[in-house]
């Protein structure tokens, strides 16, 4: 009974709004008609998706659950000059939602299967609230937390990118996208994306996405992304919910010498060597110490503050993550055609253990990034664009032909324009060849190097008591000396979400830290000796909506 | 001499009429009710149990009803114990959460008891290979610290209410089994059992009807202890993020938000009443258990 | 006696074999595998199945179940406990790093609860029925009935944040600190962990003290004019100790279970916290080792209880 209703409505909807299913002509091929009778999803109807968005009062959620410390999202892109100002906004309007659902003939006995994979209280609370909003417009939903192999349950694209059926079971998936660049938000809507499990081929969208990736010119990029944003929003291909911000905490004892704070999810120049701490032991207290190991910078180069203190990059970045002057590289230059970058390394660079840091280390690191599975998408995209990358990966060549070492000069050549190359070289640090030469890239994180890593940054690892604390000490071999007095950095062990941050801060044992948790921010705001600053980051929470035909998961 | 004979005849007659057993029960109950603490325990237990079971009588609110316009409200006439971070009524959550927590604790304890006692009675009475196997299995289960075993099992089965009851039952039966079995072993060679056998009464009937009742006291004590333990374990698992899914209101899940220091410091109405409810309930169960132990222990004069 | 111990230990071997297989099977049955936890969930969306498989291969997760188990068992028999799937550190090293912390915590809690439990139990028995007796029993009851993590959080809030007397967590601030400098870190977790145990010990001590005070030989001794305090201390206490030792021995498993929670609350870097992490992350070699180890501890402690009981009570013979 239920299934019949869904399919009949779907067939009608598909014919009426054929465009949405991919191709609008009368060529509702026979197999397609068959699949239409067997499978479908009410979510293929844009009105249903819009109704679900209209039903949620995001302003109220942001004000209450997030204490006003998050931003309601109208697009994946956060407000600013990358955001298209004329996007349709699905503001809270339950009447409109009911109307749209009625128009779309929403099957009232259908129960949405909504999945999430975070196990924090806030996520569960958010799901509860949204469930209630939906039930108020007559949409039933069940929420469940996914366990086990998440990638296989969430991000498997169907074989047929046009008609499905879906390779995943859920109706909606709550997820977060942390992006270094805008492309990370939108590349996954392309029908060619291997992780696109929810959006069928859209007419014209693939071309828009391709255009956004083929230019290094910021203005052209912005224009391209604004078009994509409009396409995604008008068709509500996914439902952005809110943007998280980054909270940066510092204590009154810390004088940051006027450094600007920024997106601490990634690394940027903080001039920490100029910072002064008003403690007798000249120690700066922070978190992010290793629990099991120091995080390797392949997936997330800024996972912990310590990464940017221990390791130097080729290029520096400012607090908005724009590449600035050289770091390990004394200078760098991009060729006219944007297809090659030349780095000139500083003289006399060494690693913390005294070994010289050479251009060979740079080449080694780039090769390692190429071979490490699961490295960050932007980084992978860039290193794969380097000349000879495929041959090197396939084992056809001994080394990566596109990276040429000449004394202390390194030239990186690309086959096609890598829009984010400079960002990548300003975020992903150079690793020591002499320590990691024999490491297996597939299990790089499990290499013993990460128990007590050796880098070339301003601070070197001193004591490590896993799961308790670790300390860094100022390294006098660094290429520049600051005016600050910090001799030691004491890091409490923690993961990305430090459950003990507020406790330690209350006890006066945090001088600098950051988190995305609104609860942390609220609690630390109230501490007398702590200050909270806010930085915008590209971090958007959303629902992906599975528009590929699939069976109702909850019967 | 003859007066003694007459007395014995009377006792025999009463036993045949089934009065002795009744007296025994009465005596245990009488002793139980003479113990002030266990009476207090029973009262608290019954009150909390009743209020949780009949939750809708005591609160107009639903435990899951979100109200974003009144979040983190301190106790007031409208919400007698205030509201939580998304505006749910705490009093309602305690009552409805109590249902789940008590069901998990008591339910698991009962299932474990039925399982353990039946196995213990059968295996203990029959002996032989069955007893050998069950004994080995129980030894293996009991070799684990309970919490370690529960954690492993939770990860295997995944987090859900039913899985938790299943896991608690699974980890709880061996102690019940041990107790029932030792009772069987010590009594099955007794003369009265031999006599019953001689009358041709079936083995299982003897085991369940004539030997098992001797263990009724320790069984009840064990049920109370297990219930208390499971309720606390449910809370501990919630804290570790491995308990009943967070969207279900349980005492453990309500308490869990005290991990947020702001809540711990400023919103005492969320965790303190819940903490008191849990503690009171567990104490009341322990009092009942103590009372039962004393009342059914024949070495104690009542 | 030696015979008894050897026989007991030998009987552990088949048991441990079965157990190890069961734990291994259990981890196998968990949904997903270690690779799913090595990559943060947000980053998983960018990885292909091929890449994930490469990682599985490299971690040796693609072998059939029995092959992996036999490999693991073979390793263990040669003293090689494998490597943590998360950090690649040898499991033996991890145990060596984390075990002292847990032992320090549980032993302190055990000593604390034994001393206070016996002390208060004896006092209660001597002052039977007094207000002190009743108060002690109520406090003891609360100790058993309050969820440990809640008590821990309340203590942190009170003693570390409000009064600023003790550190909020951790085990040490520097590797140079000796035991006494580290003591402030130990106090709260050990007290909270020991609190729940104290009341059990106390009740047992009280009961058996009362029991022994009523014994005939005590009456005889009293009639002989031995001072009351000496009587209580020498004869009463000695007789009262036996059941208490048994109780403490049997509570050891509970203590290990409790340590799991307490270590999380107080950021104590012991095997309890490690166990929770590795169970969540399906870090098979580590779960195996810790599970195995805790089982061994339980079994050994039961042997020790047997021996100590025999030593304290001449009537009991080990057989």
Walk me through what this model shows.
The complex is a heterotrimer of chains A (555), B (302) and C (319). Chain A is an alpha+beta fold and 555 residues long. Chain A has three domains: 2-244 and 539-545, Dipeptide-binding Protein, Domain 3 (Dipeptide-binding Protein, domain 3), CATH 3.10.105.10; 253-311 and 457-528, D-Maltodextrin-Binding Protein, domain 2; 313-447, Dipeptide-binding Protein, Domain 1 (Dipeptide-binding Protein, domain 1), CATH 3.90.76. Chain A is built from 18 helices and 19 strands. The termini of chain A are close together. Chain B has 14 helices and no strands. Chain B has helices at residues 2-16, 19-34, 36-53, 55-58, 90-126, 128-143, 146-157, 161-187, 191-198, 203-211, 216-239, 251-256, 261-266, 268-296. Chain C has a domain at 95-270: MetI-like (MetI-like fold, Orthogonal Bundle), CATH 1.10.3720. Chain C contains 13 helices and no strands. The termini of chain C are close together. At the A-C interface, helix 7, strand 4, strand 17 and helix 17 of A face helix 3, helix 4, helix 8 and helix 12 of C.
Name the features.
heterotrimer; A: 555 residues; alpha+beta; Dipeptide-binding Protein, domain 3; Dipeptide-binding Protein, domain 1; 3 domains; seven-stranded mixed beta sheet; four-stranded mixed beta sheet; 18 helices; B: 302 residues; mainly alpha; MetI-like fold; elongated
Question: What's this entry about, in short?
Answer:
The complex is a heterotrimer of chains A (555), B (302) and C (319). Chain A has 555 residues and is an alpha+beta fold. In chain A, 28% of the residues lie in helices and 21% in strands.
Helix content of chain B: over 70%
Discrete helix count of chain B: 14
CA radius of gyration of chain B: 24 Å
Please provide the count of β strands of chain B: 0
Q: In what range is the share of β-strand residues of chain B?
A: under 5%
CATH architecture type of chain B: Orthogonal Bundle
Number of strands of chain A: 19
Unreliably modeled segments of chain B: none
Q: How many domains is the backbone of chain A divided into?
A: 3
- CATH homologous superfamily descriptor of chain B: MetI-like
In terms of quaternary structure, the protein is heterotrimer
Topology:
The complex is a heterotrimer of chains A (555), B (302) and C (319).
Chain A: H1 2-16, H2 30-38, H3 46-54, H4 58-64, E1 70-72, H5 94-103, E2 111-116, H6 121-136, E3 140-145, H7 150-154, E4 172-178, H8 183-186, H9 205-213, H10 218-234, E5 238-251, E6 254-255, E7 276-277, E8 283-289, H11 305-310, E9 315-317, E10 323-326, E11 329-334, E12 340-345, H12 359-371, H13 377-384, H14 389-393, E13 403-406, E14 409-413, H15 421-427, H16 433-436, E15 459-465, E16 469-474, E17 488-493, H17 501-506, E18 512-515, H18 518-525, E19 530-545
Parallel strand pairs in A: 2-3, 2-4, 8-17
Antiparallel strand pairs in A: 1-5, 4-19, 5-18, 5-19, 6-7, 9-10, 11-12, 12-14, 13-14, 15-16, 16-17
Chain B: H1 2-16, H2 19-34, H3 36-53, H4 55-58, H5 90-126, H6 128-143, H7 146-157, H8 161-187, H9 191-198, H10 203-211, H11 216-239, H12 251-256, H13 261-266, H14 268-296
Helix pairs in contact in B: 2-14, 3-5, 3-14, 5-6, 5-8, 5-10, 5-11, 6-8, 7-8, 8-11, 11-14
Chain C: H1 2-29, H2 35-38, H3 41-44, H4 49-58, H5 65-77, H6 91-126, H7 131-145, H8 148-162, H9 179-213, H10 216-223, H11 228-265, H12 271-280, H13 284-312
Helix pairs in contact in C: 1-13, 6-7, 6-9, 6-11, 7-9, 8-9, 8-11, 9-11, 11-12, 11-13, 12-13
């Amino acid at each position: 009974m239920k299934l019949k209703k869904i399919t009949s409505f779907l067939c009608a909807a598909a014919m009426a709004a054929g465009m949405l299913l991919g191709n609008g002509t009368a060529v509702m091929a026979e197999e397609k008609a068959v699949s239409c009778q067997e499978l479908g999803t009410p979510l293929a109807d844009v009105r249903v998706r819009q109704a679900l968005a209209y039903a949620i009062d995001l302003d109220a959620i942001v004000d209450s659950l997030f204490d006003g410390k998050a931003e309601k999202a109208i697009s994946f892109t956060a407000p600013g000059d990358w955001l298209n100002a004329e996007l349709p906004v699905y503001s809270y309007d339950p009447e409109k939602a009911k109307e749209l659902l009625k128009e779309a003939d929403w099957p009232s006995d259908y129960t949405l299967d909504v999945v999430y994979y975070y196990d924090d209280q806030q996520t569960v609370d958010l799901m509860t609230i949204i469930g209630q909003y939906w039930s108020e417009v007559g949409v039933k939903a069940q929420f469940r937390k996914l366990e086990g192999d998440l990638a296989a349950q969430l991000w498997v694209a169907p074989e047929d990118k046009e008609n499905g059926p879906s390779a995943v079971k859920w109706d909606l998936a709550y997820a977060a996208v942390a992006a270094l660049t805008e492309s990370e938000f939108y590349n996954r809507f392309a029908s060619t994306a291997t992780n696109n499990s929810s959006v069928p081929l859209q007419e014209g969208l693939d071309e828009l996405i391709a255009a956004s990736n083929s230019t290094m010119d910021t203005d052209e990029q912005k224009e391209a992304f604004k078009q994509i944003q409009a396409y995604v929003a008008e068709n509500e291909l996914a439902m952005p919910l809110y943007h998280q911000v980054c909270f940066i905490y510092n204590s009154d004892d810390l004088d940051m010498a006027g450094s600007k704070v920024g997106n601490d999810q990634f690394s940027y120049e903080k001039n920490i060597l100029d910072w002064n701490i008003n403690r007798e032991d000249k120690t700066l207290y922070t978190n992010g110490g290793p629990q099991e190991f120091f995080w390797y910078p392949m997936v997330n180069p800024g996972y912990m503050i310590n990464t940017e203190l221990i390791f130097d990059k080729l290029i520096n970045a400012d607090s908005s993550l724009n590449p600035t002057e050289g770091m390990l590289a004394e200078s760098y230059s991009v060729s006219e055609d944007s297809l090659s970058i030349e780095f000139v390394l500083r003289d006399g660079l060494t690693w913390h253990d005294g070994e010289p840091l050479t251009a060979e280390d740079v080449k080694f690191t780039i090769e390692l990034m190429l071979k490490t599975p699961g490295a960050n998408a932007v980084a992978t995209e860039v290193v794969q664009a380097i000349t000879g990358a495929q041959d090197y990966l396939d084992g056809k060549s001994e080394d990566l032909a596109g990276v040429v070492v000449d004394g202390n000069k390194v030239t990186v050549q690309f086959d096609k324009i890598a829009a984010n190359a400079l960002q990548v070289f300003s975020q992903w640090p150079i690793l020591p060849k002499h320590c990691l030469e024999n490491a297996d890239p597939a299990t790089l994180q499990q290499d013993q190097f990460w128990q007590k890593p050796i880098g070339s940054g301003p601070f070197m690892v001193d004591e490590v008591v896993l799961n308790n604390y670790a300390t860094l000490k100022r390294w006098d071999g660094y290429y520049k000396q600051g005016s600050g007095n910090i001799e030691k950095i004491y890091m409490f062990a923690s993961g990305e979400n430090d459950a003990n941050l507020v406790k330690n801060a209350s006890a006066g044992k945090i001088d600098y830290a950051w988190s995305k948790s609104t609860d942390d921010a609220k609690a630390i705001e109230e501490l007398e000796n702590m200050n909270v600053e806010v930085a915008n980051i590209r971090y958007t929470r959303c629902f992906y909506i599975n528009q590929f035909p699939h069976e109702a998961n909850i019967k | 001499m003859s007066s003694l004979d007459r007395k014995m005849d009377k006792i025999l007659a009463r036993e045949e009429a089934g009065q002795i057993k009744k007296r025994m029960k009465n005596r245990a109950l009488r002793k139980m009710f003479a113990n002030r603490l266990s009476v207090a325990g029973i009262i608290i237990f019954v009150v909390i149990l009743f209020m949780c079971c009949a939750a809708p009588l005591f609160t107009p609110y639903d435990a899951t009803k979100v109200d974003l316009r009144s979040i983190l409200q301190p106790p007031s006439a409208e919400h007698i114990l205030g509201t939580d971070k998304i505006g749910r009524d705490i009093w309602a959550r305690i009552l409805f959460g109590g249902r789940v927590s008590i069901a998990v604790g008591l339910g698991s304890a009962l299932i474990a008891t039925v399982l353990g006692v039946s196995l213990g009675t059968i295996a203990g009475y029959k002996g032989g290979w069955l007893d050998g196997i069950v004994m080995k299995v129980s030894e293996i289960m009991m070799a684990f610290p309970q919490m370690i075993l529960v954690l492993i099992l939770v990860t295997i089965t995944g987090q859900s209410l039913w899985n938790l009851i299943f896991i608690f039952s699974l980890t709880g039966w061996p102690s019940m089994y041990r107790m029932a079995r030792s009772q069987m072993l010590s009594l099955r060679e007794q003369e009265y059992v031999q006599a019953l056998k001689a009358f041709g009464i079936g083995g299982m009937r003897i085991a369940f009807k004539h030997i098992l009742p001797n263990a009724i006291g320790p069984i009840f004590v064990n049920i109370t202890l297990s219930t208390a333990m499971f309720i606390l374990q449910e809370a501990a698992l919630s804290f570790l993020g491995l308990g009943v899914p967070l969207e279900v209101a349980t005492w453990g899940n309500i308490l869990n938000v005290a991990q947020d220091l702001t809540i711990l410091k400023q919103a005492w109405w969320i965790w303190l009443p819940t903490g008191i409810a849990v503690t009171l309930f567990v104490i009341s169960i322990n009092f009942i258990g103590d009372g039962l132990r004393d009342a059914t222990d024949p070495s104690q004069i009542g | 006696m030696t015979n008894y111990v050897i026989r007991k230990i030998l009987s552990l071997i088949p048991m441990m074999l079965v157990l190890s297989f069961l734990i291994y099977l259990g981890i196998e049955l968990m949904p997903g595998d270690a690779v799913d936890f090595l990559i943060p969930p947000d980053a998983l969306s960018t990885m292909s199945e091929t890449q994930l498989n490469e990682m599985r291969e490299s971690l040796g997760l693609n072998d059939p179940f029995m092959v992996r188990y036999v490999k693991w068992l073979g390793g263990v028999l040669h003293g090689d406990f494998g490597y943590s799937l998360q950090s690649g550190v040898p499991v033996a090293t991890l145990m060596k790093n984390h075990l002292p912390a847990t032992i320090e915590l549980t032993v302190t809690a055990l000593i604390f609860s034994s001393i206070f439990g016996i002390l208060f139990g004896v006092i209660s028995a001597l002052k039977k029925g007094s207000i002190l007796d009743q108060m002690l029993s109520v406090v003891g009851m609360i100790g058993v009935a309050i969820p440990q993590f809640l008590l821990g959080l309340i203590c942190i809030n009170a003693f570390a944040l409000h009064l600023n007397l003790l550190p909020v967590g951790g085990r040490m601030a520097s590797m140079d600190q000796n035991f006494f400098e580290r003591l402030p870190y130990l106090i709260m977790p050990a007290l909270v962990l020991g609190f729940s145990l104290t009341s059990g010990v106390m009740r047992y001590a009280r009961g058996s003290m009362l029991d022994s005070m009523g014994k005939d030989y005590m009456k005889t001794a009293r009639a002989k004019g031995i001072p009351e305090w000496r009587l209580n201390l020498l004869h009463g206490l000695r007789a009262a100790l036996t059941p208490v030792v048994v109780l403490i021995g049997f509570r050891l498993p509970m203590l290990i279970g409790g340590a799991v929670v307490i270590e999380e609350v107080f950021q104590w870097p012991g095997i309890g916290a490690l166990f929770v992490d590795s169970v969540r992350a399906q870090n098979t070699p580590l779960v195996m080792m810790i599970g195995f180890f805790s089982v061994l501890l339980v079994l050994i402690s039961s042997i020790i209880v047997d021996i100590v009981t025999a030593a304290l009570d001449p009537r009991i013979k080990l057989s």
